[in-house]
């Protein structure tokens, strides 16, 4: 965007957006400030959060609490595996749908798109029974596998591959590249923006997923951070461990924040694209 | 040995025939242009040679070796695409090196070849840039350099100038001609632009509706068009095609034009010209403007285009038939002026009802 275009944004819009952003941030700041207070002080009166002394004891407790570290590790493993798996499978499927000629391709693509219309709730019992029968609950495989069926990812990557001119493939073929080399060295690098978008959204989805881990992971050592925090909430009782709970919430949100900061460019591009750029 | 040989090549997409039994020999080092309108099959023919399409019938030989069963990368050809088809995520240097690395050329050799191509095409300043940072003309030079570094037996150009502006197109055309003179490698160039074909080609292959209409040097194609299609496709301004009645005048053909003017030609008489009517072909430069009472046919100037070195006058015959004619650059003719037309019967063409051309001199 040119600087001229930036200047044309009305002042009222800037003020409005700033206020809306402030409203969005307020609860997060509230969580942050509560996390910096000792739980016993908050038990008496939460407004003490605005006055010193502030402390990092809640964060120290998290680091010292082996259970939270395990949940954090579980969430990280599950999110990374799911993100990697979705990117790998969606890229291959997208390339296949966009570039390979095979019987039933269009029908198969429509079947994949139907996956977008089926809510998780509709299949959760069957999925639970399937994993229970296979005795796979309380494993990383069970936590990751359902998320690998990503119709949106396949759709996104198919559209992205289709948008790459075929002349690029043909030039590479004339340059003596094998089909795999065309895919790996020429086309796949061109899909990095789509990969980044899909990767970020998949990671966020996996990190924040609550329902399936709640069903599949019943062993306390296999809980993910979201399920673990929720469980803590019940056990500690909100009034007694509010500071610790808020510190857990901040801690759980940190990786997402870090991912956002690193990949901000791609997220903004993805959202702008979704808004019909 | 022919550089390239196409023998009975046919190609169908489903039930639709796009190339129909095409045979052609291209000599080693020759610059051949496939010329034809959009959809005539010229690009498909080029893609068949490249291996980007599989042929249904026939054979393709390069340097005497049959290649139609080989993948594109094994045919020893290089292609320059209409939209450049550079790899957007690679630097210019990597674009040039990619194909060589695929075929196992040593890094030293790659460096040497790139240096030569860079010098030839003057692209040294942006070797480390990505294609997105280049102008259209620069991209085109890189695309040509990418083809050159491969040192192929055959260069294929698929309308490579169509995305350039007029000035750059003219400049690149000259550079391509110079490149061919330097390399003396066989080149096939596809275009729908007859100026490109006329200026670049050793021989032009005029293609229309899936078939070759004529193969010849630019001047053969211009002066002795095999069909009325070739006559109308080659030449600017377009040739005048006028329905006439042809008759035998002592072994030579005479044409009665719609306004009653009888034009005597030096075209040997052929009975085919008498069947189902004939068409007279007159290049604008062979229909000159003269004084109102001179020339073979009176006419009225309708539109005058002053091009500097010559003037194009669109003149209507008595029956309203509009002819494109030429006058001197300093012509004073105005629209509405009565003029005479001096028609050079020796340069006239006659086309039989099936479109076959008949010309003065040898049949």
In short:
The complex is a heterodimer of chains A (277) and B (363). By secondary structure, chain A is an all-alpha fold.
Question: What labels would you give this structure?
Answer:
heterodimer; A: 277 residues; mainly alpha; MetI-like fold; globular; B: 363 residues; alpha+beta; Rossmann fold; 2 domains; six-stranded antiparallel sheet; 8 helices; 21 strands
Give a topology summary:
The complex is a heterodimer of chains A (277) and B (363).
Chain A (H helix, E strand, L loop, with lengths): L2 H5 L3 H25 L3 H6 L12 H8 L1 H34 L5 H13 L2 H14 L6 H9 L2 H13 L2 H9 L4 H12 L1 H17 L2 H6 L8 H12 L5 H21 L1 H11 L3
Helix pairs in contact in A: 2-15, 4-15, 5-8, 5-9, 5-12, 5-14, 6-9, 10-11, 12-16, 14-15
Chain B lengths: L1 E12 L2 E12 L3 E5 L6 H9 L6 E6 L2 E2 L10 E4 L11 H11 L4 H15 L14 H14 L4 E5 L7 H18 L2 E6 L2 H7 L2 E6 L2 E6 L1 H6 L4 H6 L6 E10 L2 E5 L5 E7 L9 E5 L4 E4 L6 E10 L3 E8 L4 E7 L9 E6 L5 E3 L5 E3 L4
Parallel strand pairs in B: 3-8, 3-9, 6-7, 7-8
Antiparallel strand pairs in B: 1-2, 1-4, 4-5, 9-10, 11-12, 11-14, 12-13, 14-20, 15-19, 16-17, 16-19, 17-18, 20-21
Helix pairs in contact in B: 2-3, 2-4, 3-4
Q: Could you explain how this protein is built, in words?
A:
The complex is a heterodimer of chains A (277) and B (363). By secondary structure, chain A is mainly α. Chain A has helices at residues 3-7, 11-35, 39-44, 57-64, 66-99, 105-117, 120-133, 140-148, 151-163, 166-174, 179-190, 192-208, 211-216, 225-236, 242-262, 264-274. The model of chain A has no long low-confidence stretch (mean pLDDT 85). The two termini of chain A are 13 Å apart. Chain B has helices at residues 42-50, 92-102, 107-121, 136-149, 166-183, 194-200, 218-223, 228-233, and strands at 2-13, 16-27, 31-35, 57-62, 65-66, 77-80, 154-158, 186-191, 203-208, 211-216, 240-249, 252-256, 262-268, 278-282, 287-290, 297-306, 310-317, 322-328, 338-343, 349-351, 357-359. Chain B is an alpha+beta fold. Chain B folds into 2 domains: 2-224, P-loop containing nucleotide triphosphate hydrolases (Rossmann fold); 237-359, Nucleic acid-binding proteins (OB fold (Dihydrolipoamide Acetyltransferase, E2P), Beta Barrel), CATH 2.40.50. Chain B has 8 helices and 21 strands. In chain B, helix 2 (92-102) crosses helix 3 (107-121), helix 2 (92-102) runs parallel beside helix 4 and helix 3 (107-121) packs across helix 4.
